[in-house]
Amino acid sequence: MGKTEVQQDTYLVGLGVSPGVGIGRICLLNRLSHIAEWQIDESEIEGEVLRFRKALVDAGVALRGVKQKVASQPHLREHIYILDTHLLILEDELLTGRTEELIRQKNNAESALGQTLKQLRTMFENIEDEYLRERSSDLDAVGQRLQRILAGVTDSTLDEIKETALVAAHDLSPADTMQLDRDKVVGFITDRGGKTSHTAILARSLGIPAVVGLESATAIVQNEMPAIIDGTTGVVILNPSEETFREYLKRKLAFEYLEKELSSYRDLPAETRDKVKVTLRANLEIVSEVPAAQKDGAVGVGLYRTEFLYMNRTQPPSEEEQFAAYSEIAQGVAPHPVTIRTLDVGGDKFVPDVSLEQEDNPAMGLRAIRLSLREVDLFKVQLRAILRASALGNVRIMFPMISGVAEIRTCKRILRTVKSELTQEKIPFDPQLQIGIMIETPSAVMIASLLAKEVDFFSIGTNDLIQYCLAVDRGNEHVAYLYEPLHPAILTALKMVCDAAHANGVAVSMCGEMAAEPLYVPVLLGLGLDELSMNHACLPRVKRVLRNLKQTDGEAILLEIMQLSTGKEVAAYLDREMRKLLPDLFGDFVI
Question: Model's pTM, two decimal places?
Answer without folding.
Answer: 0.71
